[in-house]
């Protein structure tokens, strides 16, 4: 009888424990994430899935993140606002998409003639980049983090060859961010178009050219069927996506889940860089064998030189108008100067000096 | 009365919950880690500290890792064995330190004329590298993971200039791994020496030259005071340290703590690469201004060519003697061939094509 009573008590306690702990250590925190991409979007969407899976596993299911793709929330370029007002808790997007709308978001994705991925990660973590991003996003109740790097992006798909600066006149091209502004100064018409509408826009002549990413993503978009000239990159040497988090919402998470979320986002960003690298290498190999009609081109030196001149002029204008912009631009230029010397000695120098021996 | 009884039950339950959870979700798991480095060793040791801190924070203190440095366990090159037999649960070391003792550990750190850091991470994750490492380490009750990359290492500090292949004859040099074997074929005498004894060995003429890492770590070692010729690298383009974990011990952790440990190790490895990059850039800048007597050199092309020939011959010998070695070497060479084409188009091509415009 005593034993039976004991048994009953244990069982009753077990039930109570489960229900009580739901309010303490085992409480499940549910966050909503809006991404700028369509569902199952390769590489970019994989970074989000990777982050969500790590957060779930590391928290033993206490941190659940629901992902809404662009087809659900209908606002691929509204991610910033939706997270700012708390409609979503987290966003996955690109900082430069909000250029023109939110001051100084432009500088945290990639800059023409700027840093490569490793150089830029070093700037974010050791060169003051993250602190500057905090300054820009903090004003909007947001905290932003690197969200995955594509590596050097290709210069884009063109219907016609670009042989001179004149060929850029009246060229309608999908090219977001600062690079778009630079080409506008040389007479082109840059536009931004949501990823899902790119192919149709090129097909229907709404645009004459576009840049998207590179071999990791471009081939499945089919651009090569309508625009055979594939130019090497100058404008996005290290395109870093971003995770943005609603600051107030982040503060409501227990410290361990905040740590889990931050580490998961950070690791997912590095992972995407490596995935992009591997995928680009594989797809470049596929491309050169399966689509021999694609013509890989470099812009002529005088075109690149004119672009660089326009680039520097616009940077000076921006710096003169906005002290925070001036601070960010100086930080990036100073860091590039410091770090590129090392890149030249190390990875660039190594590949250069062993090139003849390894080909 | 009913209300009062209800209150009492709640209180009693609360006490039971606290005491029960101490035996379940809140159990603290304590692991011991042995590192090959001395205490507070920069960069390498920082990777370990970074990993331990992430694991602690993400687990809310449920995963505690005690770190023993080489001065404590007295076996900088015994880390493999100590983790294998379970004397330690985790190790932080370099796979190639166990070359000659444990078959095929040689290939998972870096290879002369091999992949750069991004290329090698891509190989680990998408080119079969991790699976091959699992095959090698699984035989020893161990699982190994990337543990932090130094980037391209410098070719080393030399007392005298190397102007010809003859200058390598009888050269006593601290250079571990495969590179040591290659130089031995050309008449040099490679040795491995624990990090803490390097300076004294060079000072006392026990060795004529040494390679350590690069500007991120070399300057504080003081080598430049006794060996002024600093050669650019060929032999370690992407030195990746490793975390090794005792397989049985890993399996005793709950799934969430296993996930936390793996993510923390993986993120710490990427983080170390970025820290090395930033630190190398900063120290290179310091070096060129504060130590103008250091002479930065490249090996003459005929020396590099002879080294490459010796390199390829030894690789062929190794492949012919051991089927697993042959499989690993082929995997690395095939992947390098695939991925370097993309590096040439992307990061190398970008820096090359914009070089004149950014200097």
UniProtKB/TrEMBL annotation, chains A, B:
> What's this protein's name?
TRAP transporter substrate-binding protein
What the entry lists under InterPro entries is as follows: DctP_fam, SBP_TakP-like, TRAP_DctP_sf
Gene3D superfamilies with a match to the protein in the record? Bacterial extracellular solute-binding protein, family 7, Periplasmic binding protein-like II
Provide the alphabetized UniProt keywords. Answer: Signal
NCBIfam families given in the database record: TRAP_S1 (NF037995)
Signal peptide range in chain numbering: 1-24
């Amino acid at each position: 009888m005593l034993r039976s009573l004991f048994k009953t008590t244990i069982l009753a306690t077990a039930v109570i424990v489960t229900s009580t702990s739901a309010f303490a250590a085992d409480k499940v925190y549910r966050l909503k994430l809006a991404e700028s991409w369509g569902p199952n979007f390769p590489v970019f969407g994989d970074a989000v899935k990777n982050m969500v899976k790590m957060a779930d596993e590391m928290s033993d299911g206490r941190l659940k993140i629901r992902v809404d793709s662009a087809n659900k929330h209908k606002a691929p370029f509204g991610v910033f606002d939706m997270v700012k007002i708390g409609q979503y808790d987290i966003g996955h997007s690109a900082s430069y998409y909000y250029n023109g709308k939110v001051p100084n978001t432009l500088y945290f994705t990639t800059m023409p003639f700027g840093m490569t991925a490793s150089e830029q990660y070093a700037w974010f973590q050791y060169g003051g980049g993250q602190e500057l991003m905090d300054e820009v996003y903090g004003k909007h109740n947001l905290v932003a983090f690197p969200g995955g790097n594509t590596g050097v992006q290709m210069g884009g798909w063109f219907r016609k060859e670009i042989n001179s600066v004149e060929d850029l006149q009246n060229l309608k091209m999908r090219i977001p961010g600062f690079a778009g502004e630079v080409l506008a100064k040389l007479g082109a018409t840059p536009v931004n178009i949501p990823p899902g509408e790119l192919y149709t826009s090129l097909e229907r002549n709404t645009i004459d050219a576009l840049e998207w990413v590179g071999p990791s993503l471009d081939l499945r978009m089919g651009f090569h069927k309508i625009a055979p000239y594939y130019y090497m990159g100058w404008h996005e040497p290290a395109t870093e996506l971003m995770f943005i988090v609603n600051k107030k919402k982040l503060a409501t998470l227990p410290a361990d889940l905040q740590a889990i979320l931050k580490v998961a986002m950070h690791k997912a960003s590095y992972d995407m860089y490596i995935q992009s690298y591997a995928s680009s290498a594989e797809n470049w190999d596929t491309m050169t064998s399966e689509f021999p009609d694609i013509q890989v081109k470099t812009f002529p030196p005088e075109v690149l030189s004119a672009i660089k001149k326009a680039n520097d002029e616009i940077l000076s204008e921006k710096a003169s108008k906005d002290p925070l912009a001036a601070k960010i631009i100086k930080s990036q230029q100073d860091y590039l100067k410091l770090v590129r010397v090392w890149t030249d000695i190390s990875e660039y120098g190594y590949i250069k000096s062993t090139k003849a021996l390894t080909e």
